[in-house]
Every structure is written in structure tokens, then in C-alpha cells.
Amino acid sequence: MGYSIGQVAKKTGLTAHTLRYYEKEGLLPFVKKSGSGLRVFSDSDLDWLVLIECLKGTGMSLKDIKQYIDWYMEGDSTLNQRLEMFKRQKLKLEEQMNQLQKHMEKINYKIAYYTEIIAHGSEGVFERNPELAAERKRVYGK
Amino acid sequence: MGYSIGQVAKKTGLTAHTLRYYEKEGLLPFVKKSGSGLRVFSDSDLDWLVLIECLKGTGMSLKDIKQYIDWYMEGDSTLNQRLEMFKRQKLKLEEQMNQLQKHMEKINYKIAYYTEIIAHGSEGVFERNPELAAERKRVYGK
DNA sequence: TCTTGACTTAGAGTTAACTCTAAAAATTAT
DNA sequence: ATAATTTTTAGAGTTAACTCTAAGTCAAGA
């Protein structure tokens, strides 16, 4: 029913240090304390951590995550701000995924290139493998 | 034929400060200097910057990018290391794209959720929109 | 009860990647 | 020729996000 900071650290892969740091930064205003001052995490706190990891994983700063949490704490008057925030994050994420796709193409080109010259030497790579030359043009332009 | 640091800054979106910093860190060992000490960037230097941005964009540290550049400078004896490095980066990138896809699902869920309660209030969201409840289960588990 | 390991706090230290400053030299525009 | 802009260097400062330390408190097992 309640988890110690160490148990949560294990579950989430974050360190106890980091969890305390998040709390200090205002990212975990829900976590209760036991009579003697120990943190007691609930399942719902774990859900919050999942969301925090999600937003962090899409490049949101802890400061902006805190803004969202502050809005949440403020109640229904901030529903629109929260929705808009997720919409902005979705756009950012789409842009990010497109970027990663482009990066993937460059890396695939490099892998093909190195594989080819390791197998057959670097002289006349493109004559031997014209697809590689076409790929280069596509990936690096010009 | 040759570009000043300011011109390169404009082209790449990096600042001149950042470009000098990259050079200091050993990421641009190709950039020439004019007789009077000004940096002169070539088109091939711009290609290097494209690759650096690609690797940085997939989460590689400047230190690891430098390692790659050092291998490149060392010549053909490091072809395998370089290939393996790109293969590792590809795996990392695939993992990253999967993660982003999962994050996207969570964000889509939140957008659907907030859109729904902004439109119809928060009471009985899931009764009114059972697909949302199913989505929640799928996205957040349990 | 004793011991061992987990937890507490405040606060200091670390790391990566910039970001800026100042003073001088080079280049470009008028 | 003069003024304005750009670039140079070394080195200091900043920021985000941890990461660790110390000194003490709490909890569980033998």
C-alpha cells in the first residue's frame, strides 16, 4: 500500500537522491510522510512518476513539468492551460520524431558506407556501389 | 569557398561561441586559419557539422563524438571501431524512437482526457467515453 | 537489546554544454 | 582614413540536473 523511497527507486530506476531532489523541486507534492518523517509513496505517486518520466523523456525541463503540476494543484481553472501544454508537447514530440528519422537515415548511410569499404576497400566505393552515392545525395543533399 | 565563423553560425544556427567551443573540444580539427588567424570554414567542414549535429541529436555526448573524430583522424586502422560505433548508435536510436512512441501514446491519452472533461465536465468521464478508460489501461497499465 | 541497513536533512560538489567578457587585432563599409 | 563590425584569445560564469556527504534517526532481524 505504501512504498519506501528505496522501493520506489528500485521500481523506477531513479535513485533515492534523485527522488528527493524531484520532491525538493516541487515535482512530488503528493508524497506523504510517516509519523517519523519517512516518505511513503502510494501507487498514485508512481503514476505521477510515470508521467514525469514521460515528459522528461520528451525533452521537457523539470521547471516546465513543475508548472504543469502547479496547474494541476490549482484545480479546474487551469484545465485549458494543461490541455494546451500537452498539445504543444505533442507538436514538439512529432518534430522530434521526424528529426530522429532523418538522423536514422544518416546513420544508416554511414553503416552502409563503412560496411562497404571494410568489405572491399575505399577505392571506387561509389562506382562499385552506386546506390551508396545516391543515398549520400539523398541524406546529405547537394 | 571559405566561410567566416559568423557565416557558419548563421548557416547552422549554432553561435560563434559554440563553434569555437566545439573546436576547443577537438570536434573541428579540419577548420583552417587564415594568415592573420581567422577561422576559414570549408564546405566539408559544414558536412562535419551536419554529422556532429546528427550524433548530438541522437544523444551522443561531445566526448564520444570526439572519439569518433579521433578514430577518423587515425585512418583506416579504425574502420571497424567506427562502424561498430554507428551500429551502437543505431540501436540506441531505435530504442529512443520506441520510447518516444510510447510517450506519444501517453500524451495522446492526456489530450483526449482533457479535451473530454473540458467539453463535458469531469464526472463520469470514463462512463461517457469508455474508449478513454481502455486507452488509460493500455497506456498506463494495470 | 544490539546491530545493521535504510532513511532523514541541509548543503556542497559535479558534469556537460554552453555562454559570456574583455581587450586587442583584422576586416569591411563610408 | 576613419568608423563600424567581426573576429581573436584566455578564461570566467552559468544552467540544468543531478550526485554525494555528513551527521544523525528509524526500522527490522538475531
The averaged pLDDT of chain A comes out at 97
Assembly form of the protein: homodimer
Number of helices of chain A: 7
How many strands, what sense, and barrel or not for the largest sheet of chain A?
2 strands, antiparallel
SSE class of chain A: mainly alpha
User: Which chains share the greatest interface?
Assistant: A-B, 36 and 36 residues
Uncertain regions of chain A: pLDDT < 50 for 5+ in a row?
none
Per the principal axes of the C-alpha atoms, what is the gross shape of chain A? Answer: elongated
Please explain how this structure is put together:
The structure is a homodimer of 142-residue chains. Chain A has 142 residues and is mostly helical. The first copy, chain A, contains seven helices and two strands. Chain A has a two-stranded antiparallel sheet. In chain A, a hairpin with a 5-residue loop joins strand 1 and strand 2. In chain A, helix 5 packs antiparallel against helix 7. The first copy, chain A, is elongated, with a radius of gyration of 24 Å. The interface between A and B is large, with 36 and 36 residues. Chain A binds a DNA duplex (30 and 30 nucleotides) through helix 2.
In short:
Two copies of one chain form a homodimer. With 142 residues, chain A is mainly alpha-helical. Chain A has seven helices and two strands, in the order ααββααααα.
Structural descriptors:
142 residues, mainly alpha, homodimer, two-stranded antiparallel sheet, 72% helix, 7 helices, DNA-binding
